[in-house]
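User: Structure with pyridoxal-5'-phosphate, tokens only please.
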Amino acid sequence: MINSINKNIFQIKETPIMEVANYGRNFTKETGKEVYPAWFGEGNISTDKLIYNKTINALKAGETFYTYQNGIPEVREEISKYMNQMFDVKTSPFQHSIVNGGMLGIKICCEIVLEKGDEVVIVGPVWPNIRSSVVLREAVINEVSLDFDKTWTLDLNKLLNAITNKTKLVFINSPNNPTGWMLNSSEQQIILDHVREKNCWLLADEVYHRIVYQGNASSSFLSLSEPEDKLLVINSSSKSFNMTGWRVGWITHPEYLGEHIAKLIQISTTGVPEFIQKGFIEALKNHEFLVKEVMKNLHVSRDFVYNKMKHWTKLKINKPESAFYLFFKANDARDSISFCKNLIKKTQVGLAPGVAFGKTGDNFLRLCFAADVKFLENILNRLEEEFN
Ligand SMILES: Cc1ncc(COP(=O)(O)O)c(C=O)c1O
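Assistant:
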């Protein structure tokens, strides 16, 4: 009977991150021992009251009804102001649609662009759910891998050669999860020019654009774009505002796509609840203060973890320029899933296996350092014996 469901569902695998996390949960159930989690991409600081107070007020005011699919006018206005200021552009509110999380934004963009057999060029390693969104459309992935030596780099020629007349979509996540690698503006210009020449779509996942350790934000393809470009940019409240559980993201898109995105929102979530949008507007209005707080903590955490781990002998590590992960090469982690499971048994620390992020990822492990120093000290003490 199960054979009669959409066969593409079987092509989507449970991510190895979930596999390890489920193993850890079972380990706790069976042994009663806690597992210290550094496997998922979120911090342990909850949302600021500036944000949730607005949501509480909206709920009290009875704003609990169906609402505009692409977002209430006020939120689209505020997103447009934020993006224009951040990236020195002149977008209109109609170029932004709020969605229930960056993930849904990616899925909707894949639905908008991709048909069976289309070719998608992806720069990896990359967050696994992106691949699944492509696979569900029965599109074909051509992955171009970053190179790792002392740091992560992209061989631009390799990418440009991969983007041909057959390419329908190019997917780039910069700042990058899991590596912390980032494109600079001149690289973005070269890629955008090439994409224009090949007349394909560019889907830029910029959800970590504020999680940078120098400056205020990463450079964006948006800053270089013209209104006629086939450019879709994904963003999210999750990482910059500690709002992972709220499920708020947005797509920046050509204005003519708004009505089509609205249809896809209608048949998925029908829109982000109005009371959630009200809280998010407050996040955007106070972004400077809120992001400063987030980054103050992340600076401390990154330096703490990196300065300890860089001396460890059984791994190779780079200092991430962005995002909140250490993605390190571990000498003994040839099969990163089994390695992570064993690590749980030995140290009670949960890391994400590198293979989850693509073919370049095995041999690597991802540690999310978006946590307070006390928590990080505990996990590093546990990991040191294994890696030093
Ligand atoms: C690279 C990347 N893109 C998109 C997302 C989706 O974020 P959200 O759906 O929480 O907005 C994530 C979340 O971890 C991510 O790491």
